C-alpha cells in the first residue's frame, strides 16, 4: 500500500516571520559572545524552522496520520464527518 503525503501550505506571513525573526535575533546578538549567539539564536532559529516545516499529513490506507511538530496522530478516515477550509497554519 502506498502512502500519500500532503505538506501544509505556508502563507506569505509565515515566510515573512521566518525571515524577520531570526534576522532580528542575530542582529541583536551582534555584541554578545559567539557561544551565546550560536546557542540561543541558533536554537530559536531552528525552532522557527521546525514550527513551519514540522506539520504534514499522510494518508496510510484507511487512516490519516497528522504529523504536528514531528509527533504523529493517527485518525481513521471513516470517522471524519466534514472538512472545512481554514486559513490557519495548524
Q: Supply the helix-strand structural class.
A: alpha+beta
Question: How many beta-strand segments?
Answer: 4
Low-pLDDT segments: none
How much helix, percentage-wise, in residues? Answer: 40-55%
Please tell me the total number of domains.
1
Judging from the principal axes of the Cα atoms, what is the shape? elongated
The share of residues in extended strands comes to 25-35%
In whole angstroms, the N-to-C terminal distance is 27 Å
From the alpha carbons, calculate the radius of gyration and give it in angstroms.
18 Å
The averaged pLDDT comes out at 81
Please work out how many helical segments DSSP would assign: 2
Q: What is the string of SSEs from the N terminus onward?
A: EHHEEE
The major beta sheet can be summarized as: 4 strands, antiparallel
Task: For the largest sheet, list the strands in their spatial order.
Answer: 1-2-3-4
Describe how the helices and strands are arranged:
Blueprint: E1 3-7, H1 12-28, H2 34-53, E2 55-60, E3 63-68, E4 71-76
Antiparallel strand pairs: 1-2, 2-3, 3-4
Task: Note down, in words, how this protein is organized.
- By secondary structure, the protein is an alpha+beta fold.
- The protein has one domain (3-79).
- 41% of the residues lie in helices and 26% in strands.
- It contains two helices and four strands, in the order E-H-H-E-E-E.
- It has helices at residues 12-28, 34-53, and strands spanning 3-7, 55-60, 63-68, 71-76.
- A four-stranded antiparallel β-sheet has the order 1-2-3-4.
- A hairpin with a 2-residue loop joins strand 2 and strand 3 (63-68).
- The two termini are 27 Å apart.
Amino acid at each position: 500500500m502506498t502512502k500519500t503525503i500532503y505538506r501544509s501550505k505556508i502563507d506569505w506571513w509565515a515566510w515573512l516571520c521566518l525571515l524577520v525573526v531570526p534576522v532580528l535575533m542575530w542582529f541583536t546578538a551582534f555584541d554578545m559572545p559567539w557561544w551565546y549567539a550560536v546557542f540561543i539564536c541558533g536554537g530559536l532559529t531552528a525552532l522557527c524552522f521546525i514550527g513551519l516545516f514540522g506539520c504534514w499529513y499522510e494518508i496510510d490506507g484507511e487512516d490519516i496520520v497528522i504529523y504536528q511538530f514531528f509527533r504523529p496522530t493517527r485518525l481513521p478516515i471513516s470517522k471524519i464527518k466534514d472538512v472545512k477550509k481554514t486559513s490557519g497554519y495548524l
